[in-house]
Write a structure and sequence with these properties.
Strand content: 5-15%
Structural class: mainly alpha
Helix content: 55-70%
Shape: globular
Number of strands: 2
Radius of gyration: 13 Å
Distance between the termini: 25 Å
Number of helices: 4
Order of helices and strands: HEHHEH
């Protein structure tokens, strides 16, 4: 599954979790959101021992931090949506009404 497909579910999960949550909780929620979209390849283990889609989600997170949609200086182990990320979600919802 392309990385772009992870963006909205990740930001939605953070928003639903009141803006921030431990990594494991965010990953679990994103996994539920993507469950029907993940391919067999997405569910496979990679050389590092991680599941491919979870590894890809980490890279998506880094990209969202660079874009300013997630917070850069969140405490270790906590993922946090930024105000820009919330605005991005609101604009997405408005465009898809």
């Amino acid at each position: 599954m392309p990385e772009a497909e992870y963006v909205r579910p990740l930001l939605e999960a953070l928003f639903e979790l009141d803006g921030s949550a431990p990594t494991s909780e965010v990953v679990r929620r994103v996994g539920r959101k993507l469950d029907t979209k993940l391919t067999e390849a997405d569910r496979q283990l990679i050389k590092s021992g991680d599941v491919r889609w979870k590894n890809r989600l980490q890279f998506v997170r880094l990209g969202l931090i660079k874009q300013g949609l997630m917070m850069k200086n969140s405490p270790r182990g906590i993922w946090e949506i930024s105000e820009s990320g919330k605005q991005y979600l609101n604009e997405y919802k408005e465009m898809n009404k």
